[in-house]
Amino acid sequence: MTSQDADRPEAAGTSRRSKITPEREQEFFDAVLDQLRSCGYDAVTMEGIAASTRCSKSTLYRQWKTKPQFVAAALRSNRRVRFTDIDTGSLAEDLRQAAAAAGEGAGKDTGLLQALGHAVMEDPELKCALREALVEPEIAALRAILARGVARGEVPAGHPALEYVPAQLFGMLRMRPVLEGEQADAAYLVRFVEAVVLPALGLP
């Protein structure tokens, strides 16, 4: 039995869900994500969220029976793709713009990844929610950018470097704070794309 199961009210056993507005639900999710970034996963509690959003703990347990379920729902609510509108007609410029867009949200995304690093290895639902919210949509959008470049004839379809572009870009987002103690901001990621990614693809 986990700690969150141990302190769960009996009311959580019911399948009923109280009616809350989408706006109120988003307030709960925003509070969860804020606490994750500032305190880490282990420090997030239903009691703390209830206090910060001025609601009863039982209200939260009626909606989400456990902390992992609550955090997973908050992550899914945060799903967004920053690259879908990028289409300049040039693969090199598209990749520069994608790097800049990724760098603009680096602090928030890296904070979530660091906060959830250990927890997602132990909870499959959290791992799935994290991938759905932060990883898969943006990898798909980045691959679409690359596919358009291939279709325009800028890069050969079988170019071996194409496979590694998402890992290069998102890996740098995650690792620069670890290696250098600084976020991979927009300017840094654009320089990285120009120095590493574009040459690997044979682009100017």
Written account of the structure:
The radius of gyration is 20 Å and the shape is elongated. The model is unreliable at 1-16 (pLDDT under 50). The protein is an all-alpha fold and 204 residues long. The chain has helices at residues 3-6, 22-39, 46-53, 57-63, 67-77, 91-104, 106-116, 119-122, 124-151, 165-180, 186-201. The protein folds into two domains: 3-77, Tetracycline Repressor, domain 2 (Orthogonal Bundle); 91-201, no CATH class. The longest helix is centred in the last third of the chain and has 28 residues, at 124-151.
List the keywords:
0% strand, Tetracycline Repressor, domain 2, disordered N terminus, 2 domains, mainly alpha, single chain, elongated, 67% helix, 204 residues
Q: What percentage of the residues does DSSP assign to strands (E)?
A: under 5%
The number of distinct structural domains comes to: 2
Mean pLDDT over all positions: 86
| DSSP strand count | 0
Rg over CA atoms:
20 Å
Organism: Streptomyces rubrogriseus
Protein name: TetR/AcrR family transcriptional regulator
Domain HTH tetR-type: 22-82
Region (Disordered): 1-23
